[in-house]
């Protein structure tokens, strides 16, 4: 067994009970001793931009739809995960906090992904609310306390990027004041986003550097048991409409009960209309064999309340993050009643 | 016609099942030993490749500093994008502790297995992983066994290692490959560190090359011994079928077709024996591999798994070697069949009753080989030459054996009185040609046994004596922190008869990783470190900082002479004033005066001490040291260090012993094969003796005696040969392979044991033919007189 497999276990949160079919990355486990999101909690900024060690898992999740100087579509992902074995922070090397970073760059032909791991308490990885910074090794997301302006860097064996992000709208809170319910049983997370970034910067592959512009979306989420016990994975969609609207929709696939749907329709001024189960429909209409798995890489998506009826096509169907936690994450374009770009994340496919 | 002829040829084997068994088994045994050794070598080689990335095993890129690397430096490197992983290293009870950071450790062969509940324990509860052999040495710690951790090594989290070893920083950082693009240079991020290519245990594949060559030579020897059997069996079958060949030829079978049929027969046998041999070879390899793995770990620190993986190329090479061997063994017989005149007399004379002239010719060839061997001794260089020399010596001696036996028996004829005695000696002489191949096999096996046995025993005796001398101090202590070290030093100064602080610096000497020992001026060293080469007044000069000692390995490898200057550190060189023995250490080493070393490398952690103390006070001192907080595991007494070292040594030569026994077994089979075939052909010689009144039982006993006589004579010849082999192993091969020369010691008791073993093997081999003779129907003996001959 290599160290990677070892860390797989580390991120299962409860050692020994890992089963992706049961729940992706062990997210559907008990919350023993950890804090739970409570309906009615209010965010306090900038504090809540920083880590919440009392919660079991947390992430700073940024995806960017980019257009290169060559006019083609690119995608970038930057994610910092925090995971805790015990609900306490500790500034020593024996801290129960663990960090994992994912960085990926998608081009129409290729998909690059890399990961980093770090123990908490050592300073190798971490996040602070003010002045805002989240980092693992030299991968860093830092900027203003409002998250209004950010600089994002990552670098690995075959790729690098350095992006500047400028928010064109306010932070948005999902669910009820950020209380985002994930299952009929009531599992929930604290969840807010900054979906309005405009991006400029440079990406680099072995082929050389390339100037890019585009849009980006930051998700901040923390929880202690965000998935129901029988939920095996999710499909998460983020749409950027040219008129300034945004749509976030996710479907949690359930092995025993009905799939659980939720999301947010976001107006250009940041007003959120929560999506209820049954409000939208997402149907795969093309599949790609990736890494020995069948992954839906083209979808029909309808959201009748806003007259949305579009077809999604992945920029690169092979946007497979072949990491310790393997999943599909990549940019797409959509067309139909509306045209635009977005990001799709699919987990728990076996 | 061809089918009938082929069946006729095969019918011989139905009538001579023992001969068939000897042929098949001989070929199979030869193949088995050879392929077994090949399988082991292959397994080891592939595991070296796999281990090349394992921590502390193969070549790896490291960042090292002068003294411990602070945690902040590691973090600074990571934050700058350098993919490095920290390692804390130390010793407890002779076990190398490796503290690692599982989050950044690159995938390696000996990565900790942290499945199940182990992970939390590893990170938070001081869990230590070691293999089952090593775990007992860490009693008192939270140890669990993990098979993939190399011997004498234990893996734990860095935080655990800090606690156990009393450290706060790292000993080095492993550099992962490949690194991201566009990293800032090291001088900018961590100016105190340098990137080195670490060959901690040397280049394993290179270091162990000699060991594998050794194994291969042994495998080749076994193969040759096996081929003797095959050659004997095929040759006998040829002689016994002469009349059949004549009949077949007379019936119209062309010589060419007969030869092809016989070649086909050989091919069928090779196929059968090859299959059997490959299966047996797999068995031999699986049986020997754990021993080989132990040897490689003990000697070189190389990690090789104890289990075998089957490989198609290996199976095919097994068959290939069987075919090649069978062809070589059958070539001369086939040649004779092809060139036999059609009506050649089918005189069933004993096979290869070579003339005196033939015997002299053979002895001459043997003598030539011995000369060649001597020339190689004088001229040759390197390990391959060493083995070529051994091969020439062994086979030269084997070729001379019949001549020697004949000579001895001729001499015996003068000594032996009485008619019966004279007859026995004469009859034995008569059998020398028929037995010579089997006895050559026995000779090779015995000589190899004596040679290797003497080498191992000499090594053991020297090593044990050397350990006694070298490990003169009664207690070895390692403090955890500088503060504890100061307290410990105060305690030792007050309580012990002498305190010898131990300081070691890592350096590169003449281009290879080596250690520099800084020793204090104490009589213990003069007593415990015998010098095999010395300039005048060596100890005074070394202690005064005017000279350095080097170990034998470094001395032999570099060819440095007394008075030559050796660069120890950049800008610091000293003349060499002495060479000391340093068995079991693959690396070079130098010894200098401690104050001189500390003046140049001031921050050597002063944590290790040796203490001289009266034996009855050892326990008191141990308790006092423990009271200072020195962990029990850091206090080693002389006895346990010795036990550990000898344990490693014993494992080192386990394989050699096993191969010895196997070779001897093959030789015994060769004797059995020869005796059984000879038995039936010797009736004409025995029948008259029987007719003159000697009972069959008496004859049978004489047969046994004769076998014993042959074995004893062969042993007599094998003894000087074996000693010559031992000398070559100790003085030529060992120096090349390990870098040290050992004195050769004699072990007469072992020789007696081997003589007994040889006699036993010969008697066992002769038992069946003798038993048959003892119970032979008198009519068969009578029939001899009725035969036309």
Give a structural overview.
Helices cover about 0% and strands about 55% of the residues of chain A. Chain A is mainly beta and about 350 residues long. Chain A has one helix and 23 strands. In chain A, the strands form two sheets. In chain A, strands 1, 2, 3, 4, 5, 6, 7, 8, 9, 10, 11, 12 and 13 form a 13-stranded antiparallel sheet that branches. In chain A, strands 14, 15, 16, 17, 18, 19, 20, 21, 22 and 23 form a ten-stranded antiparallel sheet that branches. Chain A has a single domain, classed as Beta Barrel (AttH-like fold). Chain A is globular, with a radius of gyration of 19 Å. With about 800 residues, chain B is α+β, with helices and mostly antiparallel strands. Among the domains of chain B are: about 200 residues, no CATH class; about 140 residues, no CATH class; about 170 residues, no CATH class. Helices cover about 60% and strands about 15% of the residues of chain B. In chain B, the strands form two sheets. In chain B, strands 9, 10, 11, 12, 13, 14, 15, 16, 17 and 18 form a ten-stranded mixed sheet that branches. In chain B, strand 14 and strand 15 form a beta hairpin. In chain B, helix 2 packs antiparallel against helix 8.
